[in-house]
Write a structure and sequence with these properties.
By secondary structure, the chain is an alpha+beta fold. The protein contains 6 helices and 10 strands. An 8-stranded antiparallel beta barrel has the order 1-6-5-4-3-7-8-10, surrounded by 4 helices. The longest helix is centred in the middle third of the chain and has 13 residues. The protein is globular. The relative contact order is 0.24. The N terminus is likely disordered.
């Protein structure tokens, strides 16, 4: 069978999440000046299509907050067509550390992969991990689309990265990338999600900004929150 012959990315880092009010977001962005810069892509709409079993085994296990959890998704940055690149991502979290395995593909290639008619066999261990995950669960299918408008920031001389996600939203139908980037809100109006991504520890200057802004560490899984809201609607 043909393989997705594309570059891969491996990530291993700590990720800290915070829910910010509109006022806290404005304060935080202003205080970042001189420390971090927006990346070259600016504000980008990100669409992530999560795959799961028919009984939602993956997300049901995840929201129980185990020491180890895993998800698989197909992610697009901006509008996606059958020819534009998307990323097939296997994301695992164990004892606070996030491990991500990522392979670039196209939407048709990803659909063939989940259908079992295309395998990953060009990029060694990472391909084997993603393919094993698919084969282990066997009946993975589109379950939830998560969308948000993200600005990413980087530290010019360091490994610190952070993102601010505005208007996070979801839908459980129209699970394709050719649909309009719309969905139901995940948060209250004006709230954003801040994610801090670092290899080691959060620098002191950033700790001070968080403290001054009254920004407290929280816990949110976008897919998990969407699932909870959907179950609430059904009940």
């Amino acid at each position: 069978m043909e393989s997705v012959q594309t570059p891969i990315t491996v990530m291993q880092r700590y990720e800290w999440k915070y829910i910010l009010s509109a006022e806290q977001t404005d304060f935080f962005v202003k205080r970042l000046e001189g420390h971090m810069e927006p990346d070259a892509y600016g504000l980008t709409t990100i669409s992530s299509l999560y795959y799961d079993t028919a009984d939602r085994k993956l997300i049901r296990a995840s929201i129980e907050k185990p020491a180890f959890k895993e998800k698989i998704r197909l992610r697009a940055y901006g509008p996606a067509t059958d020819r534009s690149p998307v990323f097939l991502e296997l994301k695992r979290k164990a004892y606070g550390i996030v491990y991500k395995r990522r392979v670039q593909a196209t939407i048709p290639e990803a659909e063939q992969f989940f259908a079992g008619t295309l395998d990953l066999d060009e990029n060694g261990q990472i391909d084997r991990e993603i393919t094993y995950f698919r084969d282990y669960y066997r009946t993975l299918a589109p379950a939830c689309m998560i969308l948000y408008d993200r600005t990413a920031y980087y530290e010019p001389d360091g490994d610190l990265r952070l993102t601010i996600d505005r208007n996070p939203r979801y839908r459980m139908d129209a699970l394709s990338f050719d649909h309009a980037p719309v969905g139901l809100p995940l948060l209250n109006p004006g709230e954003t999600i801040l994610e801090i991504k670092v290899q080691d520890t959060i620098p002191l200057w950033l700790v001070r900004i968080l403290s001054e802004g009254g920004i407290r560490h929280g816990s949110i899984s976008k897919y998990g929150e969407a699932y909870r809201r959907q179950m609430h609607v059904r009940s």
